[in-house]
Amino acid sequence: MFMRLVHVRYKPESLGRIQKIYDTVIIPRLQQVEGCLFVGAIRNEQHPDEGISMTLWDTWEHADAYGRGEVFKELLGKVSPFFAESEEWRIQLSEAMELEVQPQVEEAVVKSYKTLVKSDSAISPEDTSGMLYVRIISLKIQAGKMAEFKKIYEAEIIPAICAMSGCRFSFLTESTEAENEALCLSIWDNKRSADQFEKSGHFDQLKHKVEHTFNELIHWKMALERQYDAQVVTSEDITQKGYDIVTGKSFRPT
User: How many structural domains are present in the chain?
Assistant: First the structure.
């Protein structure tokens, strides 16, 4: 299974219109695309102008063909009018040699991931009919340690997460572009269930099982924090974000 994430910033007031386009155009169209298993529009809980279009695919060939094809360009064009303006400005000289300053529109950022391991449970069509919650953890793994990280994640972490009340699905992916970058995703009934898992102490216990495989810079950060009892920020920190599923559909059990 492969995953594509299309990151965008959109005008918050346009969310309802974007959802309608997904429900009436994008989801029905992707249901006809060979190899597509799931499509969902998810919104960052802390930054309501940040959204992700998440699709799951049978194989890399299916995902790649879609990303290179006309269908992706067509569907992206349906929602691009609602993208937010970038903080960057284009400055150029007109034919009359006058300075023109124009705001730029945010561009979609596409990232692809291959699934290393996933839970035995499946995302069924019924699962995405309501407002579920997605938690995404991004982290860097030491060179040569990905296989060990995967083994522990499959044997101990996924079963523990899926045993928690409210967890529907969990899987681990590896970036196809950024070396040694892993993405850990879990889908929950609601934000409360995901928060209870973290507050229960189980999250920290599971993290401890694999933290020896983390990138060296993360280990340096953790050592400094223990020594000085203060938060340290690095360029390769573990990031954790929560998203509401605005709309989505699984075309068959994933």
Answer: 1
